[in-house]
Design brief:
The complex is a heterodimer of chains A (108) and B (231). By secondary structure, chain A is mainly α. Chain A has a single domain, classed as ACP-like (Non-ribosomal Peptide Synthetase Peptidyl Carrier Protein, Chain A, Orthogonal Bundle), CATH 1.10.1200.10. Chain A has 4 helices and no strands. In chain A, helix 1 packs across helix 3 and helix 1 crosses helix 4. Chain A is elongated, with a radius of gyration of 17 Å. With 231 residues, chain B is an alpha/beta fold. The radius of gyration of chain B is 18 Å and the shape is globular. In chain B, the strands form 2 sheets. Chain B has a 7-stranded mixed sheet, with helices on both faces. Classes of the chains: A mainly alpha (108), B alpha/beta (231). The interface between A and B is medium-sized, with 22 and 25 residues.
């Protein structure tokens, strides 16, 4: 492999990482605002959400009824379709898990 | 039926969404009507069959029954030779198809299949230990063949299988169907619209709320749109 093609591959790889990072930032921001709007979380609680923040079973506003509205709102805002058999406790375990789940859907 | 504004001039008839969202948006709709009145635009907020104080139980309604109720609510305007405009919130856009309207204004319109998905998720959430089938999940396989299918209880509402079947194919009125249609959505909703505005999706909240800033903004948009249609 020539030095030039190696360099091009490095640039492409870095660009790819940048796109993925941008994608994650967009998904993170959208999910944050969706949780804020659907669950009525205050600004402080919304800002304090991080990857380890526990959601279903830990956040009192997020009962099973609220999950239905939350998923539909996420679908509308991000233009994705979440199948019923994909909805389980794992994807809603934490904010980070939800971001990772949605990221896999948006990249398909 | 609530009435606001003058007893002459164009009339705005508001169609609330179906089911629980109607309760969550009623105060918001009233706030819109009040601002419209200050702009000199008359409005009505009818209780449609199966909604609010209607004497007809929801479980006996198909979507045509509810749409017929909306049409009846606008008849007075026609009899008085007043022009009548439909303003629909969310799935209210599915209920104004039978009415003869001079124009339709939709806020965050939701189509039938999307609403049906919502209802299925809510139903599934209430029975986590038994998985609903993919399609026709609202029919009871054990129901006798020689009787009407029993209504389905979803989040406290008894809904007829006829209404649920209607939802699987119903879509809001569009410009292609004829006449003037204006669509406004929240800026968090990427679907096409004539205008996107900032605000909260009150229809998702567990408790009914209000957003007076958004109500004022939408009422101004409606009043300006009606004025442009009247020119």
């Amino acid at each position: 492999m020539t030095a030039q093609s190696l360099s091009q591959r490095t640039i492409t790889h870095k660009l790819g990482l940048a796109v993925i990072s941008e994608d994650y930032d967009r998904i993170d921001a959208t999910l944050r605002s969706t949780l804020h709007d659907v669950l009525g979380l205050g600004e402080a609680r919304t800002a304090a959400l991080d990857a380890d923040t526990a959601l279903f079973g830990a956040m009192p506003e997020l009962d099973s009824m609220a999950v239905a509205g939350l998923l539909t709102e996420i679908e509308e805002r991000l233009g994705i379709l979440i199948e019923d058999d994909e909805v389980d406790g794992e994807m809603l375990e934490s904010f980070g898990a939800l971001v990772r789940f949605v990221a896999t859907k948006t990249r398909r | 039926m609530l009435r606001f504004g003058p007893d002459h001039g164009p009339l705005v008839a508001i169609a609330l969404p179906l089911f629980e969202e109607a309760n969550r948006l009623r105060s918001f709709a009233v706030a819109i009507c009040r601002v419209l009145a200050t702009r000199g635009v008359a409005s009505i907020l009818p209780d449609l069959p199966g909604q609010g104080e209607s004497l007809v139980p929801l479980e006996r309604c198909s979507i045509l029954d509810i749409a017929d109720g909306f049409d009846c609510a606008t008849k007075d305007a026609w009899n008085a030779d007043r022009r009548c405009y439909g303003v629909a919130l969310r799935s209210g856009a599915l209920l104004e198809k039978l009415a003869l309207l001079d124009g339709r204004w939709h806020f965050a319109p939701q189509d039938g299949p999307s609403l049906l998905r919502d209802l299925k998720r809510i139903k599934q959430a209430s029975q986590p230990h038994s998985r609903l089938v993919d399609t026709d999940w609202y029919f009871d396989p054990d129901a006798p063949d020689d009787q009407l299918d029993p209504p389905v209880e979803i989040a406290g509402n008894l809904i007829s299988t006829a209404l649920l079947t209607d939802l699987s194919v119903y879509a809001p009125w569009t410009r292609e169907d004829g006449g003037t249609v204006r669509t406004v959505r929240l800026d968090t909703d990427p679907a096409p619209a004539d205008r996107h505005v900032s605000g909260s999706p009150l229809w998702r909240r567990a408790e009914p709320g209000n957003d007076l800033t958004l109500a004022r903004l939408l009422a101004d948009d409606i009043a300006d749109w009606v004025a442009s249609c009247e020119r």
